[in-house]
Amino acid sequence: MKDFKKLIAKDLLSIKAVFFRPDEPFTWASGIKSPVYCDNRLTLTAPEVRLDVENALADTIKEYYPQAEVLMGTSTAGIAHAAITAHILGLPMGYVRSGAKDHGRQNRIEGRLDAGQKVVVVEDLISTGGSVIEVVDALREAGAEVLGVVSIFTYGMKKGVERLKEAKVVNHSLTDFDAVAMTAAEEGYIDAADVQRLIAFRNNPSDESWIKGV
To answer: Residues near 133 by Cβ (< 8 Å), separated by ≥ 6?
Structure first.
């Protein structure tokens, strides 16, 4: 199986879908200061990167989930990736809303899904794992057999890893925080000395000791 970590890391960095600003941290809604900004939706408007991402997702599904019968994207960021990857693989796809519609048939799951079908969830980004676990739960409640998840990028945070394990959800990401940080240093986006600061953030986002001067 080809290791896509460095290829996808380079791609994400090149279009600033993931970029680091350790000396001028971003502030999350929770108040936590973060040295990283992620917007993998930008891959959709960069055709060469998009092709790398979708082919890598398809190859990952063939390798780890060869029995997949349906792909289900997370709403909204995973929908386009699920559609393109499903097209490459010749599989049906649908998506799972963050909540049921309040009109019409009040669907939460869009697209045909039969009880017992083997499903792979397509997600763009995993941090704490909460949103993708909700999607998996909805699919399981609908009678699907969820084989696992494929995602473009994961932080690899302890909380997220533990939550996925507790929910019995297997995830395979194309690249991760550590790989992107190392590649960013190699490619000159950040100083090599900053990598350990970034890893310290990943290990404990609530501890701001990684920030210079703290």
So the answer is: 163, 164, 167, 169
Helix (H) or strand (E) holding 118: strand 118-126
Q: 135: which 2 tokens?
A: 């999607």
Percent helix, strand, coil in the chain (nearest 5)?
A: 45, 20, 35
The 3-class SS string of 22-45 reads CCCCEECCCCCEECEEECHHHHHH
DSSP 75: T
The total of other beta-carbon atoms located within 10 Å of residue 181's CB is 27
- Please give the structure tokens belonging to residue 15: 């279009």
CA distance 160 to 43: 23
Global pTM exceeds 0.85: yes
Quick count: other Cβ atoms within 10 Å of Cβ 33?
17
Burial class of 88 by CB neighbour count within 10 A (0 to 12, 13 to 18, 19+): middle
**pLDDT (mean) for 99-126:** 82
Q: How far apart are CA 17 and CA 37, in angstroms?
A: 8
Task: Tell me the residue type at 195.
Answer: V
Per-residue pLDDT tens digits for 14-23: 999 998 999 9
Q: What is the gyration radius of the CA atoms in the chain, in angstroms? A: 18
